[in-house]
Design a protein that fits this description.
The protein is 54% helix and 20% strand. It has eight helices and nine strands. It has 271 residues and is of the alpha+beta class. It has three domains: 101 residues, Helix Hairpins, CATH 1.10.287.1260; 50 residues, Roll (SH3 type barrels), CATH 2.30.30.60; 94 residues, Alpha-Beta Plaits, CATH 3.30.70. The longest helix is centred in the first third of the chain and has 44 residues.
Amino acid sequence: MILRKVDLGALIGTDIAELAMRIVAALLILVVGLWLVKLLVNLAKKTVFYKKQTTELQSFFASALKALGYALVIIMAVTTVGVPTASILAVLGSCGLAIGLALQGSLANLAGGIMLMVFRPFKVGDFISDGAHDGTVKKVTLFYTVIATADNLQITLPNGALANAAIKNLNANEIRRLDIDVTLSPAADKEKVCELLLDCAKKNELVIDDPAPEALVTVTEGGLPTFKLRTWFKSGDYWTVYFGLNEAVQKALTENALPLAHQQVDLHTDK
């Protein structure tokens, strides 16, 4: 019995010493590992790739890299103490599955936000339309995009749906086109009307010369001639040109006794 007690005490002492060494090693791994993670994050922030990203995406990348580094360091430390790696991974997998199911909508928005920030179909200040909403982009976050409508209403769009929508960016190109269709009676002098329309375009200082303005003639189903004034201008001048040209065209037709049979404005964003 005495011999067994001595062996048990030695065994316990050995186990305690081994556990203490493991704890010390784990603490060293934590200290050194956390320091290395911070160093790695700071080095990543100095890369060209990081500096080219938006502020929101930079913050996401830094946070994701830091979280991944911390998780690896903690797993290494816990494994060093003696906890089986399989058990840790099983717990993390279960937690990840539960969180994913609970936050699947938010995760979809997060993934959509990352896609929007990486591929940049639009930026702050652009006027966009997703088919259901249109407005000027005020803010792009990881989960939502905030736009202001033409009448200054704020709309918050989930990035998950926005990333999968057909987005029309009206400011993506440097110049835009505006078509003004004017339908007159068959007796109208086609050459004179075209000259009047081109004169209205030339008098507008915001209309550019290349591509040059065009005045075209087509015929409606009812046999009435439709005159199309096609002009190009800088994207930011759209509304000024829109209202200015419409007013100038109507004034010119009225002054020349050419009453409108029908008028339709067709908006074009393509070239």
